[in-house]
Write a structure and sequence with these properties.
- The chain is of the alpha/beta class and 353 residues long.
- It folds into two domains: 133 residues, Up-down Bundle (Four Helix Bundle (Hemerythrin (Met), subunit A)), CATH 1.20.120; 203 residues, Translation initiation factor eif-2b, domain 2 (Rossmann fold), CATH 3.40.50.
- Helices cover 38% and strands 16% of the residues.
- It has eleven helices and 16 strands.
- A seven-stranded mixed beta sheet has the order 6-5-4-7-10-15-16, sandwiched between helices. The chain has a four-stranded mixed beta sheet with strand order 11-8-9-14, with helices on one face. Strands 1-2-3 form a three-stranded antiparallel beta sheet, covered by helices on one side.
- α1 packs antiparallel against α2, α2 runs antiparallel to α5 and α4 packs across α5.
- The radius of gyration is 20 Å and the shape is globular.
- The protein starts with 9 loop residues before the first strand and ends with a helix.
- Bound molecules: 5-S-methyl-1-O-phosphono-5-thio-D-ribulose.
Length: 353
């Protein structure tokens, strides 16, 4: 990870009744500020307002958020009540990224299957161990995705990405950006074109910032420039992250991703997705069942509190879209590459030991 020094987006501070610390991503790139969170309402607010965002990172915030909710639980009854109510609350914060319900489900399962059978004095510590395990596993999955996908980025390539699938969106290193960090570490020269990613500008504020920090050449473009940049021959591949992947490979990611995939198809450019196994939802046969988060109109009509559209104008603001599997050349996971993308290959790769 030479030169890449983005702080961990989510950290646990102190022992089993400690607290959660996170980078407030709404302030980037102007300020790199960490905030401390001591109750579950604060964690809920941080997820909803995208202080922490990106599918694996909100899973981590959810897992640690449960521990935040349990800080003051002094007996078994309050512990169990607070665990259940915090799980429901945090699960409702954002609907699309399956990593959130996956991580919360894993914590509840750990409690039911093993923690509750142990003496109460150990409960906080055992659940903290599970959350830290989720975090270290996510880190390992990012590193493995980087290794499994780096060879796709060849010398001299132009690589387009959308939104932020970097260290800020995961335990560290990222998913799509992990491939870039790894190729860069191996000495390959390439240039990333980062879509700004309206309305909340994760590409401009976060991806451009992260890649710049890492010394990877990056060019920022407005979302509506991608077709022209592709036509000019500047892009040889597209790599994006994912928020939820159905069992046939249909992939939900930041709004605008589907459009980029269509453009890539027209220009005969391979379109790849990088995602850990925790982002797959094999209970869904295809992408039509993926819940799409709807966000508030002011994200479209205002910028930093300043109106940029007529007051009261009608707005539609879905935060994600679904790219059909047939537009995706391959999916890079920690267990290997899924290519071509279909139910059988997904199942084979994900069930590898
Ligand atoms: O609304 P956001 O910023 O949470 O959306 C994030 C994305 O769409 C990312 O591309 C996705 O979560 C992959 S993160 C490795």
């Amino acid at each position: 990870m030479s030169g890449y020094k983005v702080p961990l987006c989510v950290t646990w501070v102190g022992g089993p009744t400690g607290h959660l610390r996170m980078v407030d991503q709404t302030l980037l790139p102007m300020r790199l500020l960490e905030i401390d969170l001591f109750d579950v309402e604060e964690v809920f607010e941080a997820i909803v307002s995208l202080r922490v965002r990106g599918a694996p990172a909100i899973g981590l915030a959810g897992a640690f958020g449960l521990l935040v909710a349990l800080r003051n639980a002094v007996c078994q009854t309050t512990f169990q009540m607070q665990l259940q109510s915090a799980a429901i609350k945090l699960n409702s914060s954002r609907p699309t990224a399956v990593n959130l319900s996956w991580a919360i489900g894993r914590m509840l399962n750990c409690f039911e299957k093993s923690v509750r059978k142990r003496p109460f004095e150990e409960w906080h510590g055992l659940l903290l161990e599970e959350a830290l395990k989720i975090q270290s596993e996510d880190h390992a999955m990012c590193m493995a995705m980087g290794d499994n996908g780096q060879a796709l980025i060849q010398e001299g390539f132009g690589v387009l990405t959308h939104c932020n699938a970097g260290g800020l969106a995961t335990a560290s290193y990222g998913t799509a950006l992990a491939m870039m960090y790894r190729a860069h570490e191996m000495g390959r020269n390439f240039r990333v074109f980062a879509d700004e990613t309206r309305p909340l500008l994760q590409g401009a504020r976060l991806t451009a910032w992260e890649l710049n920090q890492a010394g990877i050449p990056v060019t920022l473009i407005c979302d509506n420039m991608a077709a022209q940049v592709m036509k000019e021959g500047k892009i040889q591949m597209v790599i994006v992250g994912a928020d939820r992947i159905a069992s046939n490979g249909d992939t939900a990611n930041k709004i605008g991703t589907y459009g980029v995939a269509c453009l890539a198809k027209v220009h005969n450019i391979p379109f790849y997705v990088a995602a850990p196994s925790s982002t797959f939802d094999l209970s869904l046969s295809d992408g039509s069942g993926i819940p799409i988060e709807q966000r508030k109109p002011s994200e479209v009509t205002e910028y930093h509190g300043q109106p940029i559209a007529p007051v009261g104008i009608g707005v539609y603001n879905p935060a994600f879209d679904v790219t059909p599997a047939h537009l995706i050349r391959g999916i890079i996971t920690e267990k290997g590459r899924i290519e071509p993308v279909n139910s059988m290959n997904i199942s084979n790769v994900l069930h590898k030991k």
